[in-house]
Amino acid sequence: MSSLEIVEKIKELAQKKDAVILAHNYTRPEIQDIADFVGDSLELSRTASRLSSKVIVFCGVRFMAETAYILSPDKVVLMPDPLAGCPMADMITASQLRRLKEEHPGAKVVCYVNSSAEVKAESDICCTSANAVDIVKRLDAKEIIFVPDKYLGTYVSKMTGKRLILWQGYCPIHAMMRADDIIRMKQEHPRAKVVVHPECPPEVTDIADAVRSTSGMLRYVKETDAEEFIIGTESGIIYRMEKENPEKRFFPVRKDTICINMKKITLEKVLNSLEKDEYRIIVPDEIRVKALRSIERMLE
Fold it and tell me: What is d(CA 208, CA 193) in angstroms, rounded to the nearest whole number?
């Protein structure tokens, strides 16, 4: 079957099964093209929760599909590749977080949405990369535990002036970026604005023109007058940037900023997912209800 035939079959099945297809900004171009909605993880899950669609096909990584189920337990949530995981989310478990809480009784736990449902369930409040600074700023607590991303936590600490107890997790893609990479790219493209993700190390965020979440990056490049941009995040987002801003040019900080987990989702796997109702993501109710509470506190 050709790619075109697969795409037609996906559209036909999605309509027949009342399914909405969600794709993260880091997925393959062809996956973004077939999606009903492209965006960041929580934004997509919230969008799906407001739709009447019976089925959600989440093209991303596991914690994203779990979040979609947490917000929409009445819907069938499918993940085209069950092995598409997030290394950072896997760097902390619920039992590890419980032990950390025991070491700091009374501390409030802020949990980055890039974490498992079990970790969310052990947390007081969730945050995204876009709202983490505001969430921590407003939190009235003597001690704040921030999990799992040490680099986002470091950025939040700097922006709020609050000392955080950081878990030593990180995103391997963002962690590989260095100040030298930015300096080299600025020499090659002196007129370009540098916009990076707050999951990058401090030496990178400190010298960037802007630090933004993925959705924030998309707005920044659209609203800023510059014609060239150096992008410090997973390079898959550049496809959408070029599509939405054809008159502008975009360069990745490094050419190897590719998340293999995000790229595991293919057209063939999306078709298989719709044909066989695979692979269903379900979060047990005792975990889902607690995790939902931490997400709802953030939304409040």
Answer: 8
- Return mean pLDDT, the chain: 97
pLDDT over 90 at 300, yes or no: no
Q: How far apart are CA 111 and CA 119, in angstroms?
A: 8
How far, rounded to the nearest angstrom, does the alpha carbon of residue 228 sit from its chain's CA centroid?
24
Longest Cα–Cα distance of the chain, Å, equals 60
Find the angle CA(142)-CA(145)-CA(148) to the nearest 5 degrees. Answer: 165
**Chain segment 145-177, per-residue pLDDT in tens:** 999 999 999 999 999 999 999 999 999 999 999
DSSP sequence for 181-221: HHHHHHHH-TTPEEEE-TTS-HHHHTT-SEE--HHHHHHHH
Q: Count of residues for the chain? A: 300
- Between CA 31 and CA 23 the distance in angstroms is 7
Q: How confident is the model at residue 41 (pLDDT cuts 50, 70, 90)?
A: confident
The pair of structure tokens assigned to 66 is 């779990």
